[in-house]
Every structure is written in structure tokens, then in C-alpha cells.
Amino acid sequence: MMSKTEAMSRIKKMILIVDDDPDYLFQMKYHIENFGFDVITAENMKEAEKALEEKPDLAILDLMMETQDAGFVLAYKIKKQQPRLPVIIASAVAAERGINFRVETKEDKKWIKADLFIEKGIRSDQLHREIKRLLKL
Amino acid sequence: MEKLKVLVVDDEPGIRSGVQRVLKNYTVGFPFMDEDFSFEVMDAETGESALNMITHHEIDIILLDNKLPGIQGIEVLEKINKMSLDIAVMMITSYASLEIAVKATTLGAYNFIPKPFTPDEVKSAIENISKHLFLMRMTRKMKEEGRQIRFRFLSVLSHELKSPLNAVEGYLEIMKEKQAGENITEYMSMIDRSLVRIKAMRGLIMDMLDLTRLESGKKSRKLQNVNLNYLARMAVDTVMPLAIQSNIEIITNLEDEVQLTADPDEMEIIFNNLLSNAVKYNRKNGEVQFEVKQKGNNLMIRVSDTGIGIDQEDLPKLFAEFSRIKTNETQNINGSGLGLSIVKKMVDLYRGTIDVSSQPRLGTTFKITLPII
User: Fold this and answer.
1) Which domains does chain B have, with CATH numbers?
2) Contact flag A24-B167 (C-beta cutoff 8 Å)
3) Can you give the pLDDT at residue A59?
4) In what order do the strands lie in the sheet with B249-254?
């Protein structure tokens, strides 16, 4: 039995991708549309905040945009507005090189609210799996 | 005035009160310090009570006798060493054997003053040890700051290097899996974008090399008498192919003989960066004015363009490393975000100045003034 709200909801889930690298944005959109989702994109904070009005079902944010931790700031804002919207933070800077962004401390964990951290360059089938998991599909 | 805490550890009451008296109104100053040091003296009769005081007060300097009723001075020193505290220790002792002296030095004792000592000897020893302490702390602080700057730089750099790799790799994956079908024309825009990103990455690496030159310091600089007219014309030749693509005219006003004691490679980097910016951020059919001339005891370099210009609020960010002004106009222009920071550093090397004035949509002018030595 399908509830009324479910029946009224969009057929395709919508995913918001925020990244200041136009090529990365293009490729992510390309893959995620191939997975069968709708995609909206934003290249900066301002565009992202506007795109949120479209009520996406999941957001994928780049970590380093205008500032080094723009992704964290945006994630914080999103979670404040829409606590149940799953957020993925993608970063090109890998922890295995000893350069990480210290999300380990208690204080950071308090305000950085991402559901998943991925490294850019993640295989598309892995990405698909993670999106399905977060959307409970 | 900054106060240093001095702990005197000696079982002789005369020594303890003597040091108290001598240091009561004593101050130490150095030309390179903002404020003088004064001293607050505490004392302990035994090694045990000294260690207790060390854990409860932030002691800076210890005058430590070796021969103590309980544990010996050298053992106190050993414990301080183990706790790796930021304390300078000076041994005060009447009968120091070489063995003790060597051991104390190994454990980081700063020096020895033999007992009995005169007030002046105490003062001069305290002066030396304060200076030592100050320099040690300063060095540590500067190293720490340097590390942080380096760390930040490396994390931004690795981001800037990884982004183009990820972009190209992403396109190659799509092509490998033939996700857009069998027809190669479907992939042309991806190939073009990959080439653009690779080219930009090469530019970044070239800029990195310029920056490395700067960081490696004076050793590799080859200062000589150079004729800037020649170098300026070379720079114009270098940028010409790029200018022709957008039909941009480069108007030069170069004095025939402009001599400067300089490293020719560095001058070339300055010219190339300013000229290529003036072309890259110009409009089609635009114009670049390039002027090099002597004015009094200064050399003036001026590069103006008729390009997109820079918003007033973005001007302060212009010379920072990896800062690129992001607007709709700049998003399709390649740049590492290092060029102007390199130019600024080079100009600083010559004790010169760089000024920028700009009007959005009308153009930008960079003016460099270098003193002719």
C-alpha cells in the first residue's frame, strides 16, 4: 500500500551536486543521471542555497570551494534547514597523504554533519551504491 | 614587562636569600625584544620540594645546586628532562666533577656558575640565560608558524594538482566504458576539456618551478647588469601567439637602454606574468600597453589592458597564493592562481612596489617601481 504522500512525490529522486570544478560537475551529473536520478547543480554557495529551494533528496558537496572548508559550512547550513536530507562531502584531498581536515575532534564532529565522506575519483558503481543506501532504495 | 620565574634550589639559606636580593629590581633587555624581563624569585631547600614547585608553577629558569640533602641536583635535572619542560637550568655548584658536568650538559643544563658568586656574576649569568631562553622560544614559535603555512600551502597545492587529474581521469573512464555510445564525435567535448585541464596543470607546474626558485633563496640568483629593453621585447614575442588568437594589439613604449642589476630570469618571469595576464583577461580586439622606462632613480614597468577588470572588493585577494577571482568571465580562462603572487614576491626581492588599479569591464593597470641600485 502506497501512502498518499509517497504517491504524490516525484517519480525520480533529485540529487543536488555542488562543486566549483565544471568538469567534475559535468561528470557527476553524467553518471548520476545515468543511474536514473534527476540532477541539479550549483557552482558556489549562493547557487547551492538557491538550489535547495528545489527540495533535493540528497546533496553531494565539494569540500574546497571558495574557501578551504566551504563544504563543511554548507553541510552545516543544510542540516540546520533540512536535518533529514542526506549529505555527502566529496574531497580531492586524501587522508592517506597525511593531509586531512581533522574531523576527528569532538568539537568538529559537533558541527560537521555529513552522512558520508567520499574521495573524488570514487568508482561510479560505488557511488551508485552509496547513494542508494543513503536514499534507502 | 614580562616576568620570568626563577627557582633557586639550594640548601644554603644564604644563597637563596642572596639571589632573591640581587634579582629583586633587576631587569634584562635586548635591542630585539619589545619589552624587558624582570624576575620573580622562588626558592626550594631540597630537590623534592623543587620538583613539587615545578609542577605547580610555570618556572622559566632554575638555579640548581647539585649537592642537596635528599635527591641530588643531577637527578632533579634528569626528571625535568624527562618531563620535557620548557625550562632553562643553570647548575650552581662548588665541587663539580667533570663527570657531573658532562652528565648535566647531556641533560640540557645551560651552564655552570661556581659558588661562591658575586652579585654581578649572578646578574650576568641571568642575563645570558634569559637571552638564551627568549631565542629558544622565539625559534620554536617561528618554526611552528612556518610549519603551519607550509601545511596550508601543501594542502591547497595537492587539491590544485589533483583536481585536473580527477577531471581527466573521469573523462577517460567515461570513454573507456563507451558510456556515450560508439561514435567518437560524442566524446569530442570531453577530449577538449581534458586537453584544457592538462594544459592548465602544466602551467601550474611551471609556476611552481618559479616559486621554488624564489623559495630556494639568494644562492641561486644570478645578479648581473641587464638591459631590460631586450628582456621586455622577448616577453612580447612570447605572448604574441596568444595575443594574435584574440586579435589583441600590444603597444610598447620601451626605452632603448634601461639598465638594472637584476637576475634576468626573474625579470622575465615578471614580464611574462603581467603580459600574459593582460592578454588572457582582455577582450577580443583589445589592447595592451607595455611601458618600461627609467624615472629618476627608479625603474617603472607599466602594463595596462582593456579587459574585464577586477571588482574593487577583489583587489586585496589578487596577490595571495592560489587565489583566483571567480566570475563568469574568468571561469573559462586558465590560471594557476600563482602568477601574481610570484610577481609580488619577485618585486619584494628588489625592494620595489607593485600597484594595481582597475575598472570592471574597462581594464586593469599594473605598475611596478623598482629602485635602481
Assistant:
1) 2-144 (3.40.50.2300), 222-371 (3.30.565.10)
2) yes
3) 94
4) B249-254, B287-295, B298-305, B363-371, B353-359
pTM score: 0.60
Residue A36 touches chain B, beta carbons under 8 Å: no
CB burial string B324-339: b at 16+ within 10 A, e below: bbeeeeeeeeebbbbb
Which of A20, A23, A93 is opposite residue B162, by nearest beta carbon?
Answer: A93
Predicted interface score ipTM higher than 0.90 = no
Q: How far is A27 from chain B (nearest CA, A)?
A: 7
Residues of chain B with pLDDT under 70: 95-96, 216-220, 326, 328, 331-332
Look at residue A41 and tell me whether its pLDDT is greater than 70: yes
Question: How many domains does chain A divide into?
Answer: 1
Is A119 at the interface with chain B, CB within 8 A? no
Distance, in Å, from the CA atom of B21 to the CA atom of B119, rounded to the nearest integer, reads 9
Using DSSP's 3-state secondary structure scheme, residue B234 falls into helix
Task: Give pLDDT, residue A76.
Answer: 87
Q: How far is A130 from chain B (nearest CA, A)?
A: 18
